[in-house]
Amino acid sequence: MGKITTLAEFIVERQRDFPYAKGELSSLLSAIRLAAKVVNREVNKAGLVDILGSHGEENVQGEEQQKLDVYANEKFMNALRAQGEVCGVASEENDDYIVFDDENTYNGKYVVLMDPLDGSSNIDVNVSIGTIFSIYRRVSPAPGPATLEDFLQPGTEQVAAGYVIYGSSAMLVYSTGNGVNGFTLDPSIGVFCLSHPDMKFPETGKIYSINEGNYVHFPEGVKKYIKYCQESDPGTRRPYTARYIGSLVADFHRNLIKGGIYIYSGITRSPNGKLRLLYECNPLAFLTEQANGFASNGFQRILEIKPTELHQRTPFFVGSKDMVAKAEEFMEMYKEQTV
Ligand code: AHG
Ligand code: MN
Ligand code: MN
Description:
alpha+beta; binds 2,5-anhydro-1,6-di-O-phosphono-D-glucitol; binds manganese (II) ion
């Protein structure tokens, strides 16, 4: 058996990449690692909910059973608060950002943005779900409370980002700006082990992932791109194959490994689509560029969008470079006819 590198060892080794960070970022990532294991344990029990008690009912301790996304939110919040290097967190589950304002966290140099449970509609049907996180250095002075401008930084400023996928195995995939590495949880010992070193999107792929139920509401460029994906051309490996799980993390993870494009574009009733810039698109765009792929809103690099609101949405085209470039070509060509 070859030497196994655990996530804990890897984080410490990579500490050298951040001479200025004095270990704070490492300790922050360790907090995420811990919360991921706790949430994974709970996700694994989700199928037993019918026999152990459903949401809204009381469990044996007389506590109200929580929805899994609220549970995940709490676990990540608590781990980050306890860790001390984070002065505030913005989450999909909270309307406003949360300031950590005890003595310890006031000095924290980082803010975290997260989607604690992504793909929540898949929980009840035993399909992969995830957690997405994004980490920035604060721009407001420390010590002091985190401010809105700490959270509204463009994605280019991220110091680290990643996701956890709770699937047939649990994996944690992250980047600190020096490539992307994936770790698989060995459940027998509760340790994440390096299983996917230096992950890269294949230059071009064969998979397109989009909710085609929205077809008639798509901008013309997306409609034409879908038809392009479906046409035959052996030179470009078309027709592509369609794969859509409906959990962004899971669709993204598959495409990262196999090569492909994921699209959630604007639709007539919601021109900016559904996905959130700050805690869904930016972190995945950061990983994507670190993995030799590209992420766009159809016209512009995701990471360069200047955010104006915590929960703002953006169209999202992400994946293998050539495929995203081709989709952008179609968006440009038909932009006058866009919703
Ligand atoms: P969340 O569970 O955090 O609200 O996110 C759900 C998102 C994303 O995971 C997925 O790709 C997308 O919603 C699916 O949306 P549609 O059902 O509209 O395709
Ligand atoms: Mn989500
Ligand atoms: Mn969510």
